[in-house]
Amino acid sequence: MSIGDVAQVMGLPTNVLRHWETVGLLRPERDSGGRRKYDEDQIVRIAVIQRSKGAGMTLEQIGVMLDDSARERHQVLQKHLDDIDRRMEDMLRSRAMTEHAMNCRSHDIATCSRFRAGVADVMARF
Q1: What is the pLDDT of residues 19-33, one digit of tens each?
Q2: For residue 48, which of 9, 18, 35, 104 sits 20 to 30 Å off, Cα-Cα?
Q3: Residue 47 falls in which region: left (phi positive, over 0), alpha (psi -120 to 50) or beta
């Protein structure tokens, strides 16, 4: 597939694909005219990059993950897993607070003691 076709299907501007190539995340083949041609392996890499960015990884972390010879690969991945776990806990707390807010009868939700319990860990810093 051409860069334009891949960009359209993946919902990305072509300059993003070019940037990812510049930083070494993609290595599309070139045809006789020098035009980029993306095969299934490159499209899989694009999907991995998109999913990983969506999960909060930096391009540098993604580069390490995709480099099977990177010595720090497991350390980078473990750090990312730890970050995901922390963010998931934050999301679960936020979800519980939101559910409570939807059903709470307090006019000013911030004055509700049960609602405030959702931020007690943050307030403990003061």
Answers
A1: 999 999 999 999 999
A2: 35
A3: alpha
Structure tokens at 126: 């003061």
Find the radius of gyration of the CA atoms of the chain: 22
Return the CATH fold of 3-66. Answer: Multidrug-efflux Transporter Regulator; Chain: A; Domain 2 (1.10.1660)
Question: What confidence tens digit (pLDDT) does each residue in 65-120 have?
Answer: 999 889 999 999 999 999 999 999 999 999 998 999 989 888 888 888 888 888 88
Residue with the two structure tokens 């035009």: 35
Cα 31 to chain centroid distance, Å, stands at 32
Domain extents for the chain?
A: 3-66, 73-123
3-to-11, 27, 28, 59 alpha-carbon distances in Å? 12, 12, 9, 20
